[in-house]
# Entry
Amino acid sequence: MERANLENLFEKVETIARGPHADLLEKIIDLLYEREMEEPEYFSPEDLAAIEEGKAQIARGETVSWEDLKRSWACELSGRVFPPGRERPEALRSGSPGAAQDSG
# Structure
């Protein structure tokens, strides 16, 4: 920030700090300062590996339709099993711990 702009900002802050909104200004400054001091969040190596595996699964065509996924989640959340003729799609059968059992 240029020096002239910084001086203008200081003047405005000082004016507000002496007025009826001083408490609000202090809270806003504290909030912004805390955010500025926080370390940025980055993906962990495990997160990055999971993202790459997901991309590889898509490249291999290991996907499910939105309707199949919603049906799978609805059954898992309700504890129900898939009815005959509406079994879990193959891509949803492996690798999902705690998944509902197929009824086939």
